[in-house]
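User: Mind token order:
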Amino acid sequence: MTKHVIGLTGGIGSGKSAATEAFKSLGISIVDADEVARDVVAVGSEGLRHIVARFGRGILLEDGQLNRPALRERVFSHEGDKHWLNQLLHPLIRAKMLADIGAAPSAYCILSVPLLIENNMENLCDRVIVVDCPESLQLSRALQRDGSSRETIESIMASQASRSERLEKADDVINNTGSLDELHKQVALLHQQYVKHFNLSA
């Protein structure tokens, strides 16, 4: 059976993670880009071996795991290193996501990607869900959750696709301005629609 892929995205503080968890609670397989990005640089991985070969063992923590803050600082101050890292990791992440999609046991799967629109990954998806709320609400939620400064959150928001750009790409929209219960109801309704649309068994 063809594996149907539903892309799910949203800006920082939109509630993308909560929507992803709601689909998971319905028994739907989740392929999470953030988890995949961690997997491809895990201890013993091809990705980590290449990173150590370029930057030295000083880029590792004492337990052998990647020192992410150190790597982030390095690549943001060296454009050549940033380009090299993207060239290394993007194909590995894409290949792992495709493998995970192929192995997903549920009738359709959710591909949860924060930068789905920005990285032009809609072509991997049959449909795209955007979790949406006003930018002012995104900001207040992210400030409460992350403990980051207002300037940092605003900088992240500015680097992401705008609310209008995301909504232009959406096949389905989850309006996350209300309660968690209201979000779960919208997810349940979309699940029913996908089962019917793809002629799947729930």
